[in-house]
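Job type: complex structure
Entries:
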Amino acid sequence: MTILFYILAGLALISAIAVISFRQPVYSALSLVVTLFSLAGLYLTLHAEFLAIIQILTYAGAILILFVFIIMLLNLNDDELKEQTPALWRRIVLALLGGFTFAGLWWGVSKFEGDVKNLPQGFGSIINSGKLLFTEYVLAFEIAGILLTVALIGALVLAKRRLKI
Amino acid sequence: MSLAHYLTLAIALFTIGLIGVVLRRNLLVAFMSIELMLNGVNLSFIAFSRYLGDMQGQMAAFFIVILAAAEAAVGLAIIVLLFRRQGSVQSNLFQNLKDRIEV
């Protein structure tokens, strides 16, 4: 279990750094797939089977495909991908920002010990998730459906070349 | 593995995403960094859910995934629109709303 955690965590971190350092957006998108898959593995170690499946289906399946489609649709050439290296003061500010964010949040969470509790039968399974979704969270679930519909219509209206009303 | 291990990884992912949003000029990569930040938060939700023995954190993470899907659809449509307008996805080209002080 410990070895598995360190392998998956290392994979997630390395590919996350790769996402923000590749010049070509296609490589970034592919590194993001690796991050998402290793996170799905970590969800499995946390007894969240349903969410691991959702992570692969929705993130790696739908969202990343959308990203890759858009990257290929835009067909950027090398000129447009060129970014000048940031100035020194910009890099210092960025390092400070990252360092302070990490240190501050880490200072907050490092106190959590979190003893491992004996989980109830079927914790994180699809059956229990479905029961919760359709009883306690049914209102939020319906609102999520409306949100997805609105996003779909919004994306269509935005991407259409000329809207004739 | 203790809760702090998972939370440290979640924070690291969040910080990497934050740096990516600020550093990168390419709108697509900045958008992917936002997805990284969302995933870091999701991991912390699920880790807390495991160590408190409560499914509510997993439900929160589920709704965040739905939100990310909606956000990706609209955000990518906006990026396509911006590309049609300027022929580029460099964020420093889009300064129409920036205040220009004439002296």
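Summary: The radius of gyration of chain B is 18 Å. Chain B touches chain A through 68 residues (CB under 8 Å).
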